């Protein structure tokens, strides 16, 4: 197939990583990543997104603490709702991750939220995140998806309070969240493997 630098970034450079080495990103790189997010495809040019950047060490530390607290609440809720005989969540006496471990030792997270009143926000906002992921990869910056943030941290029982704390705009929904940084060099190289067959129909 045809290849160029953009295709190489999509197919070869971008991966999702579970742990980072903690090195901070330069202001120049962060600005470039965010600007690329703003140029994502958007229905009727509404640009219904908002990018919340958690970057300072203090903010990342607090974010890790808040994630751990929310996860503990969810585990307790599930345990209370479990039928007799169902598997219980991990013991509270089991070793718990530190806030830094919970945020994968990443120096930055970007939360992409969208105006829930805009009909294309649920499409445009993830497209903006994809732009940022590819921009990061092209600059030698690694990334990793974080599904708990968008699905439970900002949408669960404490979602409204968490949105207010992390300044998600009123009426916006957090559609996706990703960590950015440099991957832990101790991680093994990852082969994405072959792509699944049967996913294309050409008429």
Question: What report would you give on this structure?
Answer:
By secondary structure, this protein is of the alpha+beta class. The protein has a domain at about 25-75 and about 100-180: 3-Layer(aba) Sandwich (NADH Oxidase), CATH 3.40.109.10. Helices cover about 40% and strands about 15% of the residues. The protein has seven helices and four strands. A four-stranded antiparallel β-sheet has the order 1-2-4-3, sandwiched between helices. Helix 2 (about 25-40) runs antiparallel to helix 5 (about 120-140). The longest helix has 25 residues, at about 55-80. The radius of gyration is 19 Å and the shape is globular.
Secondary-structure map:
Layout: H1 5-13, H2 27-38, E1 49-54, H3 57-81, H4 99-102, E2 108-115, H5 121-138, E3 142-145, H6 147-153, H7 159-165, E4 172-181
Antiparallel strand pairs: 1-2, 2-4, 3-4
Largest beta sheet: what is the strand line-up?
1-2-4-3
Number of helices: 7
Shape: globular
Largest sheet: 4 strands, antiparallel
Order of helices and strands: HHEHHEHEHHE
CATH C-level class of the domain at 27-73 and 98-181: Alpha Beta
Under the CATH scheme, which architecture of the domain at 27-73 and 98-181 would be assigned? 3-Layer(aba) Sandwich
Q: What low-confidence regions span 5 or more consecutive residues with pLDDT below 50?
A: 84-89
Q: How many E strands? A: 4
């Amino acid at each position: 197939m045809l290849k160029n630098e953009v295709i190489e970034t999509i197919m070869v450079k971008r991966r999702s990583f579970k742990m980072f080495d903690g090195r901070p990103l330069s202001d120049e790189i962060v600005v470039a990543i965010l600007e690329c997010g703003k140029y994502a495809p958007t229905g009727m040019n509404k640009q219904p997104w908002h990018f919340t950047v958690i970057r300072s060490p203090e903010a990342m530390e607090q974010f890790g603490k808040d994630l751990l607290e929310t996860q503990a609440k969810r585990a307790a809720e599930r345990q209370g709702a479990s039928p007799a005989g169902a598997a219980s969540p991990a013991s509270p006496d089991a070793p718990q991750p530190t806030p830094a471990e919970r945020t994968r030792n990443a120096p930055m997270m970007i939360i992409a939220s969208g105006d829930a009143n805009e009909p294309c926000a649920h499409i445009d906002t993830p497209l903006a995140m994809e732009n940022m992921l590819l921009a990061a990869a092209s600059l030698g910056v690694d990334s990793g998806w974080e599904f708990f943030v968008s699905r439970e941290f900002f949408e669960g029982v404490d979602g409204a309070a968490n949105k207010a704390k992390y300044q998600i705009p009123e009426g916006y929904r957090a559609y996706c969240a990703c960590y950015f940084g440099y991957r832990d060099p101790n991680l093994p190289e990852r082969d994405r493997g072959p792509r699944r067959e049967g996913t294309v129909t050409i008429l």
